[in-house]
Design brief:
The protein has 11 helices and 13 strands. It has 303 residues and is of the alpha/beta class. Helix 4 packs across helix 5 (130-142) and helix 8 packs across helix 11. The structure holds adenosine-5'-triphosphate (ATP).
Length: 303
Amino acid sequence: MIDVQNLTKRFGDTTAVENLSFEVGPGRVTGFLGPNGAGKTTTMRIVLGLDSPSSGAATVAGSAYRDLHDPMRTVGALLAAGHVHPGRSARDHLRMLAAVGGVGDSRVDAVLSTVGLADAASQRTGAFSLGMLQRLGIAAALLGDPPILILDEPVNGLDTDGIRWVRSLLRTFADEGRTVLLSSHVMSEMELIADHLVVIGAGRLLADEPLRDFIDRHSGHSVRVASAADVALGARLRERGAHVDVDGGGLLVRGLDARTIGGISVSAEIPLTELIPIRKTLEDVYTGLVEEHGRHRAKTEVY
Ligand SMILES: Nc1ncnc2c1ncn2[C@@H]1O[C@H](COP(=O)(O)OP(=O)(O)OP(=O)(O)O)[C@@H](O)[C@H]1O
């Protein structure tokens, strides 16, 4: 469990995080979303004891990071790939980290194989691609076999296979009852990986709910309908408060769900030939929410 309570962080005049509270629970993948500069990295750094808060607190498994008895076996983190000595091999890099964290050498080859770098273990990391460095960063996070993982943009630089691999790794991790907090700008990927979302804007909490609820709540009802008598059906639907547009060979109906539209067509004795609820994607919903938040901020800053 990761617990962030009333967290505020200021850098001079910049408030990076403002009175932010949320919990990241076990057994699910929690996506951490927000536009550039929203405060995600700052929050993750504070959770990992790399920055101190101006006020409020963050704990991991019940303790502040600096008070953890065995940090590497409690939480694994990937904040930015690439901080690796280029002359060192992948295996030596991980051995050094394992020694510092008090983790046995046997884990080094185990994690190299988990991340698909077993064959490159002796190569200098200076010759690694961005994708290989990401895999090495994830290997380092897994060294202590921790129950909690915090990953900032883990799919950066990965190809399709690599992205699929991260997805299945995190799914397995969550299904084992572990805790995963993950940030990504790739919404299509986040939609496939995350069970739960924490969304922030300008350092403040905008949403903290299951991904499905987030999409449903912000989607509104939108249904494509076609029938034997679109004009008559459209009139009935408008009477019931729907917004109806003619859409190709049918109608696009907003404001009523598919079940209600079906009921109206039955009582009007107008057979339907199409009834398709339209779901928004995470990207649609997220972009809308961030734009709305930006407009609201601009307004409150002007007045
Ligand atoms: N060390 C620092 N000194 C001064 N300002 C900082 C520092 N770290 C972050 N900031 C500022 O705090 C705000 C939040 O930054 P942060 O990196 O946490 O956002 P983010 O959500 O991770 O953004 P991105 O998605 O671009 O990585 C930004 O305005 C940033 O410029």
